[in-house]
């Protein structure tokens, strides 16, 4: 029998593509999408959907019991830029939803959990280049603080209650299907959309702001690879560093110019610059490579080709 899976926050940037991939692997009826709002037609039409608030324990428990859910992917979160505007709402959503799924694991109502962390767990005092898996972590954003605390809770629930929770620290994610919302790395999606639509883009980060990034196909593959991995091989129960590529806005602009010669970028940095400045330039993901065979497939050139080809269709 196929396992039944629940995705909380299925209509967001990662959730949408994750749900579709899980449905193609395990069968549409075994993968239950849920969110506080409905998603796009492909997601809504391809399998079961539940309107569900990830901060409501009883509501999640009802859905888990009803569909006999074994695995939960918790993708609901408030991202870095929005979280700076609504600190308490961000804390309550990011931590409340995590406690809900961890407690379902503790109660043995589900077997396995995926919860995403982020490069935001690092602050300005961590090494900028090839930021190690284990290093000084002094996040300076509301979002980063919630992710770092969440990582510690994951370790605690694993050690104390044997909850099989797995996690990666996503870099900025680039995709053409669903828009990101409220992140600092969102510029790397906007730039392709504006390039395809208008041939120009005003960037909210300044030139030279190098950040770790990843194409969505790699992110989904990494997520499923970690979830499929033999639990005994996992040496990290906080969250794995995950890398693919690193670049600054002008480097994406140059790679777009190979396809759209007259594409122009201008810079108008806002409050998100300070957030970006506190994050790593690049990531050392050797633990993920060693423990579960992680290896990215998309570099900047390949990402640019995929993005522009699909956005222009
Ligand atoms: C954000 O920019 O907030 C996210 C992240 C890097 O976690 N994309």
Explain this structure.
The protein is α/β, with parallel strands linked by helices and 313 residues long. The protein has 2 domains: 5-171 and 215-241, NAD(P)-binding Rossmann-like Domain (Rossmann fold, 3-Layer(aba) Sandwich), CATH 3.40.50.720; 172-213 and 244-283 and 297-312, UDP-galactose 4-epimerase, domain 1. Helices cover 43% and strands 15% of the residues. It contains 12 helices and 14 strands. Strands 3-2-1-4-5-7 form a 6-stranded parallel beta sheet, with helices on both faces. Strands 6-8-12 form a 3-stranded parallel beta sheet. α5 packs parallel to α6 (142-161) and α7 (187-198) crosses α12 (300-312). The protein is globular. The model has no long low-confidence stretch (mean pLDDT 97). 2-amino-3-ketobutyric acid (AKB) binds at residues 79-80, 118-120, 143, 170, 172, 183-185. Residues 79-80, 118-120, 143, 170, 172, 183-185 line the site of 2-amino-3-ketobutyric acid (AKB).
List keywords for this structure.
alpha/beta; 313 residues; 12 helices; 6-stranded parallel beta sheet; 3-stranded parallel beta sheet; UDP-galactose 4-epimerase, domain 1; Rossmann fold
Topology of this protein?
Blueprint: E1 5-8, H1 13-26, E2 31-35, H2 41-45, E3 49-51, H3 57-67, E4 71-74, H4 80-85, H5 87-106, E5 112-114, E6 117-118, H6 142-161, E7 164-166, E8 168-170, E9 172-174, H7 187-198, E10 200-203, E11 211-215, H8 216-228, E12 240-241, E13 245-247, H9 249-257, E14 264-267, H10 272-277, H11 286-292, H12 300-312
Parallel strand pairs: 1-2, 1-4, 2-3, 4-5, 5-7, 6-8, 8-12, 9-11, 10-14
Antiparallel strand pairs: 11-13
Helix pairs in contact: 1-8, 5-6, 7-9, 7-12
The structure holds 2-amino-3-ketobutyric acid.
Residues 79-80, 118-120, 143, 170, 172, 183-185 line the site of 2-amino-3-ketobutyric acid.
